[in-house]
Design a protein that fits this description.
Blueprint: E1 2-4, E2 23-24, E3 27-28, E4 30-35, E5 50-55, E6 63-66, E7 77-85, E8 88-89, E9 93-97, E10 107-112, E11 114-121, E12 131-136, E13 148-152, E14 158-163, E15 165-172, E16 178-181, E17 185-187, E18 192-195, E19 203-211, E20 221-225, E21 231-233, E22 236-239, E23 243-251, E24 255-262, E25 265-272, E26 277-285
Parallel strand pairs: 4-10, 11-18, 19-26
Antiparallel strand pairs: 1-10, 2-3, 5-6, 5-7, 7-8, 7-9, 8-11, 11-14, 12-13, 12-15, 15-16, 15-17, 19-23, 20-21, 20-24, 22-23, 24-25
């Protein structure tokens, strides 16, 4: 992400609003604008572009604003934000908003846009606080968080825009434990893929580890070692700036040991497996 102040036209003539106009009721307003993904960060047309915000501690209730104008979030707080426009989407990032006194310049944040498609998740409606979640498995050389979306399961099936590439989806209870997972699918630019997360006939395992050491690991090896010495590598993995994710499907053993090795950072845990269940492990990578 890149924040800046100023009027920056691109070759097509896209011009950002004057930062001196970035004020609402005497306090600083925000402008999130789409730019090219290359190093030039050339401003793009904001036509059809929307800003999406969710509170960082819930990430389910979205508020939307047009990219073409100054705005302020619904209230003070920390928000997850990203842009969506046609067949493109930006990475996600966090911002902290407060009603700061306007001192002549609004805050402009430039968001690089990348190819996107849509993932439709077929899931039953529930009213118990469950969520449908989508996670992009595409890794980035930049320091960006994993791209994920959360929608209340009370809506049933949902369709969300995601970065082009591999993605998975799941249904999670109100505490963040997975009830059902899909297998990874390839989402192509401008197309829609459909998945239907299902309860496993044996055991699925989802491991999500927070990264405190944000230096990019050369590689992470994720596997489950069984009592007989055999080893099962993860079928879906993601190494992002903020977390490491690994998923296994259809495990039949009664127990095993999860190993995630990212060079200087490692995680290890003994687990008991159970049929018709997704084992969810959330921890830190030390």
């Amino acid at each position: 992400m890149m924040a800046g102040f100023g009027v920056m036209p691109d070759a097509a003539g896209a011009t950002l609003p004057d930062p001196a106009t970035g004020e609402i009721n005497g306090t600083i307003a925000l402008l999130l604008w789409p730019v090219s993904p290359d190093a030039s960060r050339q401003p793009l047309s904001a036509e059809g572009c929307e800003v999406h915000l969710t509170l960082s501690d819930s990430q389910t209730d979205e508020t939307r604003y047009p990219c073409s104008g100054w705005f302020q979030p619904p209230g003070r707080g920390r928000y997850l934000v990203w842009l969506e426009q046609g067949e493109t989407v930006s990475p996600q990032t966090f911002i902290t908003f407060d009603y700061l006194r306007f001192r002549g310049l609004g805050q402009t944040i430039l968001m690089p846009m990348r190819a996107a498609g849509w993932l439709r998740v077929d899931a039953p409606k529930t009213a118990d606080g469950a969520t449908v979640r989508v996670l992009s498995l595409e890794e980035s050389a930049e320091d960006v968080r994993a791209f994920d979306r959360r929608v209340p399961a009370s809506q049933g099936g949902v369709t969300v825009r995601v970065p082009a590439g591999r993605a998975i989806a799941g249904v999670f209870d109100s505490t963040g434990r997975a009830r059902a997972l899909s297998r990874p699918v390839q989402v192509k630019k401008g197309t829609t893929r459909t998945v239907a997360p299902s309860t496993p006939p044996n055991t699925d395992v989802l491991v999500s580890l927070v990264r405190r050491n944000h230096k990019h690991a050369d590689a992470c090896r994720s596997s489950i070692v069984f009592p007989n010495g055999s080893e099962q590598p993860a079928e879906a993995t993601l190494v992002a700036w903020d977390r490491v994710v690994a998923v296994w499907y259809g495990l039949k053993s009664a127990e095993g040991r999860v190993l995630v090795d990212c060079g200087p950072s490692k995680f290890e845990k003994e687990i008991q497996l159970a049929r018709f269940k997704v084992i969810t492990i959330r921890d830190e990578l030390h």
